[in-house]
Specification:
The structure holds 2 protein chains of 2 kinds. Chain A is mostly beta strands. Chain A is built from no helices and 11 strands. In chain A, the strands form 2 sheets. In chain A, strands 2, 4, 5, 9, 10 and 11 form a 6-stranded mixed sheet that branches. In chain A, strands 1-3-8-7-6 form a 5-stranded antiparallel sheet, with no helix packed on it. Chain A is globular and about 40 Å long. Chain B is mainly β. In chain B, 0% of the residues lie in helices and 49% in strands. Classes of the chains: A mainly beta, B mainly beta.
Chain lengths: 110, 114
C-alpha cells in the first residue's frame, strides 16, 4: 500500500526557534493535509493544500504542496510552548481515503 | 456547534469480551470514517459509512470487526472477542460531503485489552 515518509521523527527545539518537517511519497496526491494531535485528543486540521506548488500560511505555520505532488513541508516560525504535540501529514487522492505519515513529535526544551 | 463526539473516551476490556465504540458526527454531517492508531504511528483507515450504508470497509479486518451507521443514532464500531492486539486508539471523523471533503476528527476512544 501507499506509504508516506515523514521526517524528522522527533524534534527537540528551544522556544523561539523555527521548525521544519516534511513528507515524501512514492505516489502523487491531489491534496496534502497537515494535522496536529495533542495527547489524548484527535487530530486537528492545520492546513490543507490543493494545488501543486501552493504555499499556504496559517498564522506562524506555512506549508507547501510540492511541484511533483509527491511531497510537502510544514514550517513553524518562532515556536512557542503550545506548539508542542505531534504533527501529521496526510495525503489524499480524489476520494476520501487519507494516507498518513507516522508523525513528527515536537518537544520544546526548557 | 458541537464537534464530533466519541464515547467512551477510555474502554478497558478483557480478552474475549466485546467492545462497542460510538461516534456522533458533527451536526449536518452524514459521512463517517473510522481510523485506528497504534502508539507512535499515524492513523490507518478502517471503514467509511454513510447513513445506513457501508461504502468502503477495505481497511477493516474481515473477522470480529463490524461497523454501522443507522438512520437514527450514532455510528457504532463493534469489536467482538477482543484480543490484546486490538488495543489502540480508535478515531472517528465526519464530513459534510464525501469524496475529498474535509474530515473533522473526534477525540478518540482508547481501547485497552487486558
Amino acid at each position: 500500500g501507499q506509504q508516506l515518509n515523514q521526517s524528522p521523527q522527533s524534534m527537540f527545539i528551544q522556544e523561539g526557534e523555527d521548525v521544519s518537517m516534511n513528507c515524501t511519497s512514492s505516489s502523487i496526491f491531489n491534496t496534502w493535509l497537515w494535522y496536529k494531535q495533542e495527547p489524548g485528543e484527535g487530530p486537528v486540521l492545520l492546513i490543507a493544500l490543493y494545488k501543486a506548488g501552493e504555499l499556504t500560511s496559517n498564522g506562524r505555520l506555512t506549508a507547501q504542496f510540492g511541484i511533483t505532488r509527491k511531497d510537502s513541508f510544514l514550517n513553524i516560525s518562532a515556536s512557542i510552548p503550545s506548539d508542542v504535540g505531534i504533527y501529521f501529514c496526510a495525503g489524499q487522492y480524489s476520494n476520501y481515503q487519507l494516507i498518513w505519515g507516522a508523525g513528527t513529535k515536537l518537544i520544546i526544551k526548557p | 456547534n458541537a464537534g464530533v463526539m466519541q464515547n467512551p473516551r477510555h474502554l478497558v476490556r478483557r480478552r474475549g469480551q466485546e467492545a462497542r465504540l460510538r461516534c456522533s458526527p458533527m451536526k449536518g454531517h452524514s459521512h463517517v470514517y473510522w481510523y485506528r492508531q497504534l502508539p507512535e504511528e499515524g492513523l490507518k483507515f478502517m471503514v467509511y459509512l454513510q447513513k445506513e450504508n457501508i461504502i468502503d470497509e477495505s481497511g477493516m479486518p474481515k473477522e470480529r470487526f463490524s461497523a454501522e451507521f443507522p438512520k437514527e443514532g450514532p455510528s457504532i464500531l463493534r469489536i467482538q472477542q477482543v484480543v490484546r492486539g486490538d488495543s489502540a486508539a480508535y478515531f472517528c471523523a465526519s464530513s459534510l460531503a464525501g469524496a475529498s471533503d474535509t474530515q473533522y476528527f473526534g477525540p478518540g476512544t482508547r481501547l485497552t485489552v487486558l
